[in-house]
Design brief:
The chain is an alpha/beta fold. It has one domain: HAD superfamily/HAD-like (Rossmann fold, 3-Layer(aba) Sandwich), CATH 3.40.50.1000. 40% of the residues lie in helices and 16% in strands. It is globular. The N terminus is likely disordered.
């Protein structure tokens, strides 16, 4: 399992990449799909409220997860296993490795889902999870009747406050990659943002510049061009 390093100013990297998981690394909304599968009625009620930001992610996601009986946790992990990775991730990781730039996954979803999907084997014989500098996500206790949420970085409106995670990994330049409302605070604090889907609309509202992208090949190409000229 990737470590959770705390980097000091003396050894901080020049750059670091923070990437969302659900709908960003995965080609579809895996966590959202899981909630709709295992908490359908409450999802129908709360998800539009979260997207409209009438209730916080912290409130909504906690309610949804803690409404699911723990007996379904193995089914949740099985649900995640066949989910596909968005094209180009390995190419981006290869490029970042060559540049000695850490790639950190910051997810507002469930750690078990993230690690299950990233345990897929890459072409280099290593699982994708082994290539991550760190992973931050929501932890679940499935020993009770219903799932119980735990998060080291719970704060303000988020179960995983991504800005707090960013503060743990300082760098001269921080790059954020995301796709939805869960990535908004991270994107507003990052100097360089790659946005797709709903996140573009939220950033337009905030007049925050971003780089649109479709797959990780796009990000790899753009960073390669930018860094060659820096």
């Amino acid at each position: 399992m990737p470590k959770r390093p705390s980097l000091s100013n003396q050894n901080q990297p020049k750059r670091v990449v923070f990437c969302d998981f659900d709908g960003t690394i995965t080609a579809e909304e895996t966590f959202v799909g899981m909630l709709k599968e295992f908490a359908p009625e409450l999802s129908e009620q709360l998800m539009p409220e979260m997207y409209a930001r009438r209730i916080t992610l912290r409130e909504g996601v906690r309610q949804l997860l803690e409404s699911i009986p723990s007996v379904h946790y193995p089914d949740i992990i099985e649900y995640a296993k066949p989910k596909l990775i968005r094209p180009g991730l390995e190419a981006l990781l290869d490029f970042l490795d060559a540049q000695e730039v850490p790639f950190i996954v910051v997810s507002g979803g469930v750690r078990g889902i993230v690690e299950t999907v990233l345990s897929q084997t890459s072409t280099k014989g290593k699982s994708l999870i082994e290539r991550m500098a760190a992973i931050y996500a929501v932890d679940l206790d499935a020993t009770r009747d219903y799932l119980k949420v735990f998060s080291e970085f719970e704060a303000d409106t988020e179960l995983v406050a991504k800005v707090l995670v960013m503060a743990r990994h300082p760098a001269e330049e921080q790059i954020a990659i995301g796709d939805s409302v869960t990535d908004l605070n991270m994107a507003l604090h990052a100097p360089v943002v790659f946005a797709r889907d709903r996140l573009c609309h939220y950033l337009d509202e905030h007049k925050k510049p971003y780089i649109p992208w479709n797959d990780f090949f796009d990000i790899c190409d753009k960073l390669s061009q930018e860094w060659e000229n820096s």
